Amino acid sequence: MSLSNTLTTVPLSVVVTVTTSSVAVTTVGVVTAVTVITTVAVSQVIVPTFVQIS
């Protein structure tokens, strides 16, 4: 079975659902990664400052 035949038999709604869900997962992953990186970066800057103050 060729790819074009498979794509035509798959309903558009399924394609949209899969695409949307994968985009959502990717977005969540990116946001999580950015949040973690930002948190680590901020803690690297803030923690030594607090240690110096105290």
TrEMBL record:
This is Uncharacterized protein.
